[in-house]
Amino acid sequence: MAIPRRAPATLALLLALIPSRARGQEGDVLGVHDPCIAKERTWYYLFVSFDQCCRGVESTYRTFAGRSLQVTGPYLDRGQRSMRDGEATLVLKGYGNFRGPGGASVLLEGERSWIVHHEYDVLANGAPRLQVRPLVFAADGWPLAGEPLSAPPAEVVPAPVAGNWGHSVDFGAESQITLLSSGKINQAGSQDTWSLQGSTLTLKWPRPDAPGGAWVDSCVLSGDGRSYVGRNQLDTIIRGSKLRSAFVRGDSNGDGAVDLSDAILSLLVLYGGRKTACLDSLDANDDGRVNIADPAFTLLFLFRSGPPLPPPFPGAAFDSMSDSPGC
Ligand SMILES: [Ca+2]
Ligand SMILES: [Ca+2]
Q1: What's the CA-to-centroid distance between 288 and ligand 2, angstroms?
Q2: pLDDT at 175
């Protein structure tokens, strides 16, 4: 390919955008890669990858963003610091069994947005993987990456927020917390509280050493109610995943047996506005979705000698399938 003698305008723009330094661990050969720009409402968002990719599980790649009202910049982070000074707001870094998420591209399609990136699988000797995650914009307008999709978005009823969650700070190890239906966290007399307004889930943790006397996690709850992601006052990313419980497939009302009342309850959840704590139990045909086919499957089994419900059935157990809607 011929190389033009003069830098085209787009190249000049990119050169102006590239930070003069990048973050990283001591000893790293630092880099900033894979920029992409997306416009959401009035803001242009510049996504970049910092540090090192392509080292398998040793990769230190992380995904950051800044934003500007002009496509030409200047792009600033959440603290109004310039990306040209190497500053940016963290969107995603490695956690769990994956390392080095970067090389991101973004698709904005109206109500829903997506971020696609590569990373490295610890359980597969650092093999590269591609993941697609919901990209959500918090109430403050800053982007957050949700949990990776493992199946097409299912026709599910959102799970209730109350229940047991794996709660993570700064992509660290998950600790179990319980969001009680009273709005307290972990126990009835606790000072720690949660509240939900629209899709904004706020967790408050009064602590003497916290800014303003309490840590405030402002999070976005996923559409299926199975995860949340947000930031606290210091921009630390907060994540949560709903913990699963043992269940009997088809046992919608949780009484341990599958009968006509379960198929009726499934219909009420699907079409009558009823809530359930265990969507997995409603997924009678185990296809990862909850819809009219499920009570039909149960009724065929009960009254028309249809095939038995897939495990866990008739005894209670966990569903190991990652595409299950959740319990
Ligand atoms: Ca039942
Ligand atoms: Ca199903």
Answers
A1: 6
A2: 93
Provide block-wise average pLDDT over 10 residues at a time, the chain (327 residues): 34 44 46 90 95 91 96 96 94 94 93 93 93 94 92 63 93 94 95 96 97 97 91 96 87 92 94 80 90 96 94 81 57
The neighbourhood of ligand 2, an ion, using CB within 5 A, equals 283, 285, 287, 289, 294
Ligand (nearest to CA of 279): 2
Q: Which fold has domain 245-327?
A: Type 1 dockerin domain (1.10.1330)
**How far, rounded to the nearest angstrom, does the alpha carbon of residue 237 sit from its chain's CA centroid?**
11
Amino acid at the residue 5: R
Helical spans, DSSP H, in 205-320: 260-271, 279-282, 293-303
Which residues hold their Cβ within 5 A of ligand 1, which is an ion?
Answer: 251, 253, 255, 262
Beta-bridge mates of residue 246: none
Cα 52 to ligand 2 centroid, rounded to whole Å: 42
Give the amino acid at 225. Answer: G
Shortest-distance ligand to the CA of residue 280: 2
Q: Which CATH architecture has domain 163-242?
A: Beta Barrel (2.40)
What CATH code would you report for 6-145? 2.115.10.20
pLDDT tens readout for residues 83-92: 999 999 999 9
Centre of ligand 2 from the C-alpha of residue 290, in Å? 4
CA of 161 to the centre of ligand 2 (A): 22
Over the stretch 233-266, which tens digit does the pLDDT of each residue have?
999 999 999 887 788 999 998 888 999 999 999 9
Contacts of 36 (CB under 8 A, 6+ apart): 46, 47, 104, 105, 106
- 281, 148 in Cβ contact below 8 A? no
